[in-house]
Amino acid sequence: SEGETMEGYVPTSAGWNDPPTQGVTTGVAKVVVEAAKKVVETTKPPKPPVPEPPKRPGPGGPVDGDGNTINDIRSDYLTKQAEEERKKEQAQCLTRSDDNRFVGTFVEIYGLSNEIAKILLKLYNGIKKEYPFDQDMEFLKVIASITENYRSTAFKITSGTYSYDILRNMLKVYGLTRNESDALIEALSLQHKRDDTPDLTHMAVHAATILRSFIESMPASIGSWLFNGEGVNQTSGAFGDFMGVNGALPSINNADYQADLDGYNIAFRVKNTSKSIQEVMIDYYYELKYQITNRATEWLRNFGGLKKLENLIRNHLPMYAPKGKDIVASMNLSFAELEKSFGDDEKYSSAFKFYHHIKGGLQKWQE
To answer: Contact at 8 Å (CB) between 65 and 245?
Structure first.
């Protein structure tokens, strides 16, 4: 209503005057006040955001904005870095010549010196030059013959190995000097005693047995079936180690385990491809290194599956079962029940342990 005024500016016909000279209605006053408030609100600086309370650090240390711990970040970086290095190494590896990769295989896988690896390459090339028949088989036989045990009559029959005198002569024929022959024999004899790498001469004797022709291996196979209940290609390798043959107790370690699986896998690849032993060994160990294959899984596939391995162990039990065991009844037991009954016996513990190594895809023997 008229007569109610407000302090401050009041409108006149000429605009806004100060000081006020006449009253302003309450309604106009309210409008002016609200307008002034809006001006003030729009010109105020924005309020700073309220910071969130810090996240609790995880077990790997402080976290970033995505919730990753320092250890997570470091692990991801190292994984990516390792993958890049692996790809780079793979690419470089594939550009090397087969001879260089062959030498590298003996150094990296079997722990031999570069000098001995080059002597093995020279031996292989000498065999290719001088031996007119199965050169891959000859290479394996010569390597196997370096270990004294594999020069026994039994291995001469099963694998075609040579006596010491013939071995010496063959090394000379294939181009090795006396000093090179001495160095090779000494190095592989020492390597045979190691447990941290596959046993090269062991791998060779097993692969040679498998690759031997049917006519050559027939006498040995007949004898093996009569005495051991299995073919010679089984008893010469893993089976002979984890079950024992010819009356011997089982004996297997990491070097034997890897050599048994590798010998079987390498021989299988040679038999079923057109590749040489050199090419197969290069490919096989390249695939193992970069986890393209698994020696235990590949062995099981080549062997024929887990059920066949179970039957192999089951069928061997009657031959060496300890007295007092009801063998006939045991044949009706499941494999798990067989293991429960026989697994603690020293003649069978290695067999069941081998079974679980293969089933679990273990690439090294674990005591």
So the answer is: no
Nearest to 201 by CA among 110, 126, 101, 288: 110
Secondary structure letter of residue 74 according to DSSP: H
Residues composing the chain: 367
Please, are residues 323 and 258 in contact by the beta-carbon 8 Å criterion?
A: no
pLDDT digits (tens, 9 = 90+) for 234-273: 545 567 677 666 556 677 899 999 999 999 999 999 999 9
**Residues linked to residue 15 through DSSP beta bridges, in sequence order:** 12
Segments in the chain forming alpha helices (H): 26-43, 70-95, 98-108, 114-130, 135-145, 153-159, 164-173, 178-191, 200-211, 214-228, 232-235, 238-243, 254-272, 277-289, 295-303, 306-320, 327-330, 335-342, 349-359
The pLDDT tens digits of the residues spanning 72-130 come to 666 677 777 777 776 777 777 766 789 999 999 999 999 999 999 999 999 999 999 99
**Distance from C-alpha of 269 to C-alpha of 318, rounded to nearest angstrom:** 33
Residue 50 burial by Cβ neighbours in a 10 Å radius (0-12, 13-18, 19+): exposed
Joined tokens for residue 27: 């309604």
